[in-house]
Every structure is written in C-alpha cells, then in structure tokens.
Amino acid sequence: MQRILRAPAHTFALALLTLAATAAAQTYATGNPRNPSEPNTPGTCATLDSQFTSSQVDVEDPPTSDDTSRIQDALDSCEGTGEGVVLHINGSDNAFLSGMLTIENDEALVIDSGVTLYGNNSYNSESELIYVPNSNTGIYGAGTIDGRANVYSFSNTPRLVQTQGASNFVIANMTLQNAAHPNLYIQEGSGATVWNVTINTSPNQANADGIDIDSISDVTVANSNITAGDDGIAVKTNEAAASNITVKDTNVYGTHGLSIGSQTFDGVTNVLFENNYVYGKDSAGTASTDANAINIKTDEDCGGLVKQVTYENTCIEYAKHLIIVNAYYGSCSGTSGTPQFQDIIVNGVKSQSSVSGAYETFAGYNSSNLAQVYLGNIDLDSNTQNGDEYTDAYLDNVNGLDPSGTDVSDSSWSASGGVPSCSFQF
C-alpha cells in the first residue's frame, strides 16, 4: 500500500514545503570529469607479421606452435617507450594465435585492420588472455581479439582483456568477440577510456559481460556497440569504491542491460548513462537470457551506497525489465552491507516492442533506507509494476508510470528536457 504521511493539521504546510525541498534537492550525475576525446593511436615500436590464417586457428584444436613468445618479447622490448607493437597482416595470413599476454608500463598493442588475435587453448588455465597491470597502456587498431568460445569449450572462466590497478588505460576502435567470460574487465586504478569498441559475444554465453567497471574512478565508455551474454555494462565495487563514470552514445544488444551492481559495498557514486540504446535481442534475433534495460541491483550480502546515478535519454526495444531498482537482487557475493539508493535519476526514456510480461521494479531495502528515485519524461509501452516497496518516487511527465506498494510514496519534481526521440534499428 502507498505510504501516507499523517500529521496535525497545522503541520501540513510545513510538511509540504519540506517535501518540495526534498524533491528539488536531486543531484544529476556529471560522470567522468576528464571528458576525454577520441584517442590517437601511438607510434610504432615494433611490427610483427601474421603467420596464420583464421581458418587454421579458429578451430577446436589449433596448432600447438603459436605467436605467444614473439608477441610478448616485442611487448617487453617496447616497455616504457609510449609506442606500440603492431600486429600486421601479411598477404593471405591474417591471424595471430597466442596464450596469455601482458602489456606493461607505457606501451600499447596495436592490431591492424583485417587482423585477428586468437586466444589459444592454453589460456583456459589463465585468468585472462590479455593482462594489463600498469599505467599509460592501451589496445588500439581496427582489428579483432577473439576468445574462441564459439569453437572451444572452456573448463575455466578466463576473461578476454583484464586491467588490474592500471591508470590511464585506453582501448579504442577494437573488436572483442567470443569471450568465455567477461570481454573487458577494468578493475582498480584511475582513468580509463573505452572508445568505439565493438563487442560481439553470443547472448547465450553465460557470464560473458560486455564491460565490467570495477573499483575505479574517472572512466568513459563512448560510441561503442556491445553484444554479450550478461550485463552489457556493469559498474561494481569488488575491491574499492567506483566513481566518476560516463557511459554515452552506446548500444547494447541481447545483454542484461546497463547495470549498477550487484557488488556495491564500497560505494558507487556519480555515474552518468547518457544517450544510449538498449535492445533485448541481437542483430540475428537472439534474445537476451535476462532482458534488462536500466538495471540497478544489489543485496544485503554485497550492498552499500549507490548515489548520484543518472540515466539520461535511454531508448529501449525488446526488453522485459525496463527500469529496475532492486535492493533484493539475490545471489550476490561480497561484503555484507545495507543497500542504499540515493539521487537515482531516470530522465528521458522511451520503450517499444517490450516482450510479454514486461515490468518495472522500485524496491528499496527497508523503511529506514528508502530508495530515492526521480522519474521524468518517461514513455513506456508497459507500465506494469512488480515488487515495488520502500521507495520515495518523484514523478514528472511519466505517462502513467505509478510506483505503488508497501511504504512507497509518489511526489512531484521538475525534470528537464523531454521524452527522447528514438531511431530504433530493428
């Protein structure tokens, strides 16, 4: 049932003024203060020619001899130069085959157009195919990194690209595909730019997130296209707080949405999702296994403060869970804590062709920790509510969206802008 404020008659005016002041106190996220522009590909330190074709290596049992040593040796020799090791096409040979590679300090890996770097079978025993532990590093070029999860059954769960404590990491104009587990995992450190990256891993590949942004500040994801088997993008805190993050002008297909969580115990602050499209299926028509769109999720097993998160101008098609703010996500490992949602702003949303049973959920943790959610300029093709509770919702131009349930209140606020004009692809 809806929460009702009760007070003596002479306090009604004061209560309304207080409520209005609270509604006006929302703080929009500003995202990454660095606001990076399109990165430039670094100069060349070394060039390696390919010696395989894709048909030779993109099979269940590729050659046992590969390019691991020569790529790693070139990377080691270029450390500290600020330049890159270029993987270059060589006539009809267009492929490299490698086990785990490490990109060290102040250097880059550049994969030319038409070239694919394939992971061999041995990186199944590693945590990742490409490991980036240091600062001022990057992966560039119009080529591809392929994890081969489409042709080889992995017994373990290696990530395709993993940063660990790296500062000023850049990945630009690259394709990542067929990951066995997350495609790109950015963890700890400060400063990362993901620019014009295409991720193409099947929506049926379990736990294969597109991009995980974990325990890091000052991150931008821009102008990218992500097809993946779990969250399209997830912001989380397994090691430290996450803050100052921008995700803009990006499309996700067949994923579990644009997500915060589930691990939030160290605190998530100032995250801006801006001008993004969410599709509940990929270009081949394969549907997401959990078609979320806007998705903030945590639990008392791994919960903490999620504050100043803004979804601005989001276009949604073929999704089921259109807007989810949920403090009872479940199956969440980490450090236990109290889920808190403050200054959650969803301003500018349009959905169409939502799947049968589509709904929204606004669920805070308890009566002492109400979710604070501002909803403005929203036009959904399904306004069904499921599991609303413990929420202060502020509404403006929401076209029938009406959160209601145990300890839920609806008030007004003034949202800027309007319902976005969406140009859906399908």
The structural domain count equals 2
Structural class by SSE content? mainly beta
Distance between the termini: 39 Å
**Estimated helix fraction:** under 10%
Largest sheet: 21 strands, parallel
Task: Write a brief caption for the model.
The chain is mainly beta.
Description:
The protein folds into 2 domains: 1-30 and 231-426, no CATH class; 43-221, Pectate Lyase C-like, CATH 2.160.20. The protein has helices spanning 12-23, 54-57, 68-78; strands at residues 44-49, 84-88, 95-98, 101-102, 108-111, 116-119, 128-132, 138-140, 144-146, 159-164, 169-172, 175-177, 184-187, 190-195, 198-200, 211-214, 217-222, 225-227, 233-236, 242-248, 251-253, 258-260, 268-279, 292-297, 305-317, 321-326, 340-352, 359-363, 371-379, 389-396, 406-412. The model is unreliable at 1-22 (pLDDT under 50). Helix content is 6%, strand content 40%. The longest helix has 12 residues, at 12-23. It has a 21-stranded parallel sheet that branches. It has a 10-stranded parallel sheet with strand order 4-7-10-13-16-19-22-24-26-28. With 426 residues, the protein is mostly beta strands.
